[in-house]
Amino acid sequence: MGRIRILSDTVANKIAAGEVVERPASVVKELLENSLDAGSNEIRIAVESGGTRLIRIADDGCGMLRDDALLAFERHATSKLSDVKDLLSIATLGFRGEALPSIASVSRLTLETRAEEDSTGTKVEIAGGKLLRCDEAALPRGTIITVRDLFFNVPARKKFLRSEQTELAHIASLVTHYSLAHPQRAFQLHHGATELLSVAPVAGLGERVYQVFGSEAVADLIDLGVQERVLELPPPYQPQVQPEERDNEGRERAFILRGFVSRPQIQKPNRNSIFLFVNGRLIRDKLLIHAISSAYYNLMPASAHPFALLFLDCDCEEVDVNVHPSKTEVRFRHPSFVHDFIRDTIRQVLIERRPASTVPSQYSPQRAADLPYSEFSQRMEEAAFTAPLEIPPDKPEDLPVFTLHREQGPAPRFEFTDAPLRMTPPDTHGALPGVDTTLDQPTMSSFRDLRPLGQIHDSFIIAAGRDGLWIVDQHVAHERILFERVLKERAVGRVEMQRLLMPVVLQLSAAQQIEFARIADELNSTGFEVEPFGNRTIAVKAAPAGIGPADIERVVVEILEVAERELRTVSLDDKRRAIAASIACRAAIKVNMRLDMTKMEWLLTALAATEYPMSCPHGRPVALRYSMRDILKSFHRI
Ligand code: ADP
Ligand code: MG
């Protein structure tokens, strides 16, 4: 006799239950979907002990005829699908006919149901998959399903359940989100005597969001409205038809996205606040989650996640829902189209709804070539959001260290435009009409009146000036101050230095060794005390004040590299300035560093005392000014 046997239905159902019924919330999900498929207007759910002891769901839907009430517990018994072709166009939430038999095989289940057309209802009792009784009963139209003692006969699975509170949280979240997907229906959820949710029918999603989350939370959300993008499909391939008779009309598939996303300042520690519905079905989908994360890229630290409640509706043929037994995964026919549609739509809405008064910057065209415009404008753009963003740390090694022999260009200016703000690279524009691009004497002197108001993102100082509002990049400002100080001290031969407890020993390449020999004297008069230390090795015993021990090696290496590249061809004066610029950059305070008022005041006063407060030794702007005139103009006062 062969060894292969066909499993009994009871065993098969139990196995299927492992896939469909993972935890109490999955039971609620299946039963809730059935009630929605039955066209119910009111769905009442009661649970006890996190759903393990009891789940009861009562609806006023179409109910089941007596024969169907029994048939519903057969495997693959469904009223929603009859042909394999139907699989391509499933409009209901259920279709596999697996949920009821699976749930009934791992619990004590009672079904009470009456269809409109039947005068009496039916009551069915099943325990661990065995039919106990089936009776006639006087019932209102609709269906009540009671699931007791979930997993009573599968102790292994019961062990994997989390605490009552955790299971309840899953159920509450699930019911809440289905209620959001169906604003026109009423939902109730009770845990024991506690009411967790009770929402009456409302006209639309906005009102339901308000009912569920309250007015405060709604203020943090952005309504996406109804967004549509059409996918053009090539004409169908019609080999038997003559080319001239072919239907050349491409088919169009519309994708509609609705929902709410949080403003970037709302940051959740995990993805549990992302809810995705595809054609009314709650799903988890990596592709869509990735699209959402990409929309927030740069607006939120990578470790944080937004709240999102998204409803994507599309032609049934564009999405395969039959990927997973619990129907929580889908496969899109055109995944990258869907991904980009979602990413772009959210991104666009986030940009449009940013806080209004942002101050754009605009450099004059002649500075475009040597300023890292994109980097800076991006930083300004990020700073416009109030979210605690990571300002990218300064990377001095990426900047042209030696630019001092160039003419210092005019200071950057910026103009005010109405939000939404669009940053355009300056080289596509001429000088801005009405915007003065020369650095005049009054501008220089107005640095002296700057009064710090505070800091944004621990990186930029906001200051009130006689002539308007200023934004000062703290790192760049400090760099300018230190640069001039080092140069001055060097001129009188007294650079402030720090002696190191342990010398920093550096291994040099052959080329660096040669450069070191050439600039050793200069280094030693600029606050360093560096000595040869055996073959191709040097010992740094002292360094200019302010450079942290970890940075000393980098400053020396940077100076040697620049020396190798450029210093050979330039004057002694330029050489000194280049060394001073390297020191200043390393010793300056960084972005993402909180400053108290005294430090901000000190920084602004010291900046005002510099010879050229408008740009750093590398040519980056120190400050942006939003002039009084522009402020008045923007408020329509002039
Ligand atoms: P599926 O939903 O995939 O069809 P189920 O096992 O969940 O499979 O349900 C089997 C059938 O029982 C459904 O197709 C439907 O005809 C019927 N049914 C289940 N729940 C309800 C309900 N609440 N109201 C009316 N009919 C229901
Ligand atoms: Mg179902």
Describe the protein's architecture and organization.
- The chain is 33% helix and 22% strand.
- It has 638 residues and is an alpha+beta fold.
- It has an eight-stranded mixed β-sheet with strand order 5-4-3-6-2-1-7-8. Strands 9, 10, 11, 12, 13 and 14 form a six-stranded mixed β-sheet that branches.
- α1 packs across α4, α6 (164-181) packs across α7 and α13 packs across α16 (572-587).
- It is elongated, with a radius of gyration of 35 Å.
- Residues 356-391 and 394-441 have low confidence and may be disordered.
- Adenosine-5'-diphosphate binds at residues 30, 34-35, 38, 59, 61-64, 72, 77-80, 94-100, 143.
Short account of what is shown:
This protein is of the alpha+beta class. The protein has 18 helices and 23 strands.
Distance between the termini: 99 Å
Major β-sheet strand ordering: 5-4-3-6-2-1-7-8
Q: Which bin fits the share of residues in helices?
A: 25-40%
Number of helices: 18
The distinct ligands, each listed once, are: adenosine-5'-diphosphate, magnesium ion
Beta-strand percentage?
15-25%
* Major sheet attributes: 8 strands, mixed
Structural class: alpha+beta
Provide the low-confidence segments as ranges: 356-391, 394-441
Report mean pLDDT, rounded to a whole number: 78
